[in-house]
Design goal:
heterodimer; A: 519 residues; mainly alpha; two-stranded antiparallel ribbon; 3% strand; disordered C terminus; B: 480 residues; 21 helices; globular
Chain lengths: 519, 480
């Protein structure tokens, strides 16, 4: 099989679309297996993509190009960063469908269709190589998510769905104007070309701010994060998983794909802004998380804190920091997704997210308590779990730029341990004060199948992160090389390399000459 | 010979004029011939459209009647759009009017006559022919607005439209007389030449009055006040017609006047257009928020959309004009679709409903209708991947290309306000509990028209982008 001839990415986009259309017309009993089947097929295709991706090959692989829509080019292609995020999406999707298997009972067909559409759009965002195509996928995700929150959400779902939609839309429309300007300036909407276009420094500032408006809301960064707790709390479990797992990553991906390599000078100038907001976010949202009474809200605030570490890592302008940021994104996608699933498991039994309604459930739900603990630890950043690898790398990278920012951002890990362990203690340990919580059944086979795969990947990423670092290393190096000219000097006083530590250092070769299309 | 050549250039108008007269005669001879005459009128519109299609792709331009009218790609593109919109308005009307007891033969005849007027509007190159076309269209429209005589609302709408429309016509005429007085000619080309040399205060006054009169016709703020009342009161198929064909004609007319007559003095009119565009966008968006009646909502939506279209004109570039035509085309599809959905809102007794409370939970009882309605709403809001997004994109692209960045940023930010009320329609249909007042639609014509328009507004519409791009580019070139 010659992978270059088969439009794998288009197929991965088409499968959920077709399945979504099918789901609209069939009964609930059929819609569920169709959705699960489609997402599993896409996951298998994702694995194929992962295996046949050559980390040393061309920068953009599996490229496709067709002139279907006039100025909007149907151009797809992935590099290592896109690959890992696409993998994250296709990995979480079957789990989301499984999580909704019993808990969604009304309008199942439409629900599954919305999720499948969401999957197409997520993959599209990460695979698009045309600026306008990217924008279409990026914005279109608002519609299914609006419907998911609004139709299948909780009590205040309508307020939350509006807030989600309008907040993100307002952030994005200005970016569209910036994109149009860029296309006119460069004469093309081709992202690989734009990546190597040098925009005038004057214009970069405005363009950067326009993109920042969109990605900061999507990320979300303090102070434009307030839509996230509302959306998370009101969304159904699977909606929260997708929101935290993949949609938030679009912000980080945007910074990485557009803001940094396209506007290096502006990015460097705005480091104080990004670091400042991130520092506030880490401390402030962690403290807010500490006092939450609602489990989902607590995890939502913890997401904001974790994403702040991502932004710190991204704007370090060095290999470690950016690699770390990507690993935090992947790790957070898995861990917060899993935490929302854990909340969903007990919510399905007791129908409340109030922390005080639980307690001591490690007695009656030992298997659940074990998994929940694993994900709690991963969220805290315990060595051996995925959280540690990412946070360590991005903070180590940040140290080279700003020791103060690193110092404050690192408190996030301590505070994170505070609120997560506090949450875990209140739910799993202590006296079994509530009879109904004490009577809950342990997780069944279906729930095990949802949580166990994530647990495996979280440990895998924690113990052997090389699997996930290998495909992104070269692409991160490309970005670092591109932005090097604007890299900040940093305030840490680095010593000359000590020969005795040479064996711990990985020397990254400068970009090798590779034969084009040799994948 | 000269006359023959001129006549051959206005074939669509001739066909439509004679058909209108013939149909009127036929109606006099036959009783209850409303439906038959509607069908014949659609046939006449198709025949007229056939003459416009042939010259869509060619950039040829020929002047008729000593420069009173012109036959060019721009006019032909606009005419095609007008005829299609009019044909759709004719197709969807019979059941509605029968229910209201007003399916009389005058309806199709008036629409055809209005189309003649609109054809003259979009190809006029002289203030006199402009006014004749505008009045022919307007007078037909006043009667159409009050077509359901027995209904107080309809009569009120007609009267309101007439009084305010006459005022606007007066303003336009006053402006035209000033322009004639100071430029020395009524021909666009001659006015353009005169303006090239010198623009005095008198000419500026004339331009302001002409633009105000035209702003009224396209229901742009601050001359939009009549729109919600007339849209609400007029019978729904007539409202669908008002929101589509005359709007195309009036906007096309505005483009031609501004560019051919005043084109050389961009600074004089650009400020006005920018102000009108932004006011329309914001007033259209904010005004719609409190509305409970869906037809009023659509009226504000059309004010809002006109604002976006005018952004293209504010650029004054060929790209901007092409973008306006693209937006207009998509706008016609969106707004007609919205009205087709509205017309399917019938309760179990067969009465037409048009309030927000009636569509509560529509997605549970009538999923297909709700989905189509949602598509039109998201498309009007300009959310990708629906086709309405493309219209907004090309217009803003033109604004960016012309260096009007602040205008583009303010305009697109204001579109978020507009998104709020479009979302409200979706929210009521999808999130609220079912009110269950709307019955199954028994009108297959509406179902099919709605379906086709919904498909056009869905991402499938993107396949039309290349063709649309070519035609609008050729059409825009004709104005420069």
């Amino acid at each position: 099989m010659n992978a270059a001839d088969i439009p794998v990415l288009s197929i991965m986009l088409a499968i959920p679309m077709v399945a979504a259309a099918l789901c609209l017309f069939v009964r609930a009993e059929l819609a569920r297996p169709i959705a699960l089947g489609a997402t599993l097929v896409n996951f298998i295709l994702g694995v194929v993509l992962w295996i046949s991706y050559d980390p040393a090959g061309a920068q953009w692989q599996f490229t496709e190009s067709a002139q279907l829509f006039g100025p909007i080019g149907w151009k797809l292609g992935i590099d290592g960063i896109s690959l890992t995020l696409i993998m994250l999406s296709v990995f979480l999707m079957p789990i989301c469908i499984g999580a909704s298997w019993n808990s969604i009972q009304k309008r199942v067909g439409e629900y599954m269709a919305a999720f499948l559409l969401m999957e197409t759009l997520m993959i599209g965002v990460f695979a698009a190589q045309d600026l306008l195509l990217f924008y279409i996928f990026f914005e279109a995700g608002l519609i299914p998510m609006y419907l998911i929150i609004g139709i299948w959400g909780g009590q205040d779902r309508i307020y939350a769905s509006y807030k989600f939609f309008l907040y993100t839309l307002l952030g994005s429309v200005v970016m569209l104007i910036a994109m149009l300007w860029m296309i006119q300036f460069a004469g093309t909407a081709d992202i690989p070309t734009l990546l190597n276009t040098d925009f005038p420094v004057q214009a970069q500032t405005l363009l950067w701010l326009a993109f920042f408006a969109s990605f900061a809301v999507k990320m979300p960064m303090w102070p434009v994060h307030t839509w996230l707790p509302d959306a998370h709390v009101q969304a159904p479990t699977a909606g929260s998983v997708i929101l935290a797992g993949v949609l938030l990553k679009m912000g980080g991906y945007g910074f990485l794909r557009f803001s940094l390599p396209m506007f290096p000078e502006a990015s460097a100038n705005f480091i104080p802004l990004v670091f400042g907001l991130s520092m506030v976010a880490v401390v402030y949202t962690s403290l807010v998380a500490l006092v939450q009474q609602d489990m989902k809200k607590l995890i939502a605030y913890s997401s904001v804190a974790h994403m702040a570490i991502v932004t710190v890592g991204l704007f370090t302008f060095n290999q470690q920091g950016i690699e770390g940021a990507i690993i935090v994104m992947l790790s957070h996608g898995l861990v917060s997704g899993a935490l929302f699933l854990c909340v969903g498991v007990i919510y399905d039994r007791l129908h409340t997210r109030e922390i005080s309604r639980y307690g001591g459930i490690s007695v009656n739900m030992p298997k659940y308590a074990l998994l929940f603990m694993l994900f709690t630890m991963a969220s805290v950043g315990l060595p051996g779990t995925s959280g540690f690898v990412g946070e360590f790398l991005s903070l180590a990278g940040a140290y080279k730029v700003s020791t103060w920012a690193t110092l404050i951002a690192t408190t996030g890990i301590i505070l994170g341990a505070g609120y997560m362990l506090y949450l875990y203690r209140r739910i799993a340990f202590g006296p079994q004060a509530n009879a109904d919580a004490a009577a809950m059944q342990d997780i069944d086979g279906r729930e095990m199948w949802l949580l166990a795969p994530i647990a495996v990947v979280v440990l895998w990423m924690g113990v052997y992160p090389e699997t996930f670092l290998a495909p992104i290393r070269r692409d991160v190096a490309t970005i670092v090389e591109r932005i090097e000219r604007a890299a900040p000097t940093g305030d840490s006083k680095l010593m000359a390399a000590d020969p005795s530590t040479a064996r711990f250092r990985v020397v990254h070769e400068p970009k090798k000459d590779v034969a084009e299309g040799s994948h | 010979m000269e006359l023959n050549a001129s006549l051959s250039l206005v074939r669509p108008e001739i066909i439509l004029s004679f058909s209108a007269l013939a149909l009127l005669l036929l109606a006099a001879w036959m009783d209850q011939a409303g439906r038959l005459i509607s069908i014949l009128a659609v046939a006449a519109l198709s025949a007229a459209a056939a003459f416009t299609v042939s010259s869509l792709g060619s950039g040829s331009s020929a002047s008729a009647f000593d420069g009173l009218m012109v036959n060019d790609a721009f006019g032909n593109f606009s005419k095609l759009l007008i005829y299609i919109a009019a044909a759709v308005s004719l197709t969807i009307a019979p059941r509605f009017l029968e229910k209201a007891g007003a399916m009389r033969a005058e309806y199709p005849v008036l629409i055809v006559l209005s189309c003649v007027g609109m054809g003259i509007m979009v190809s006029a190159t002289d203030l006199i022919s402009l006014y004749i076309g505008l009045e022919l269209q307007s007078l037909s429209a006043y009667v159409l607005a009050s077509f359901v005589r027995s209904d107080g609302r309809s009569a009120e709408a007609g009267l309101k439209y007439f009084v305010l429309g006459a005022l606007a016509s007066g303003m336009l005429l006053f402006g035209a007389s000033l322009v004639y007085g100071f430029a020395g000619s009524t021909s666009f080309a001659a006015i353009g030449l005169a303006m090239d040399k010198d623009v005095g205060l008198g000419l500026i006054f004339g331009i302001v009055f002409i633009l105000s009169g035209l702003a009224f016709k396209i229901s742009a703020a601050p001359f939009h006040m009549w729109t919600p009342d007339v849209y609400e009161g007029a019978p729904t198929p007539v409202t669908a017609f008002f929101a589509s064909a005359p709007k195309v004609a009036a906007i096309a007319l505005l483009m031609r006047v501004v560019l051919e007559a005043f084109g050389s003095q961009e600074l004089v009119w650009q400020q006005i257009i920018i102000a009108v565009a932004l006011m329309s966008i914001i007033i259209g968006a904010v005004g719609a928020i409190g509305q409970q009646n869906l037809k009023r909502l659509m009226a504000y939506s059309s004010i809002n959309n006109v604002g976006f279209i005018l952004i293209g004109l504010a650029t004054g570039t060929e790209q901007g004009i092409a973008a306006m035509l693209v937006y207009l085309t998509i706008y016609v599809a969106m707004t007609l679709g919205g009205f087709v959905c509205l017309m399917q809102l019938k309760d179990k007794d067969g009465n037409y409903r048009e309030e927000f409370s009636d569509i509560a939970g529509l997605s549970k009882t009538r999923p297909a209708l709700a989905a189509a309605f949602a598509i039109f709403m998201f498309s009007l809001a300009g959310i990708p991947p629906l086709f309405g997004f493309w219209g907004k994109l090309v217009v803003f692209n033109a604004a960016v290309a012309a260096g009007l960045l602040p205008l583009a940023v303010i305009g697109i930010s204001a579109s978020v306000i507009g998104a709020f009320y479009y979302l409200k329609v979706v929210k009521v249909m999808y999130f609220d509990d079912a009110a269950d007042v709307i019955a199954e639609s028994d009108d297959k014509v509406l179902v099919w028209t709605g379906g086709i328009l919904a498909a056009a507004n869905s991402p499938l519409g993107y396949f039309a982008i290349p063709a649309l791009g070519v035609w609008t580019a050729v059409a825009a070139k004709a104005l420069f």
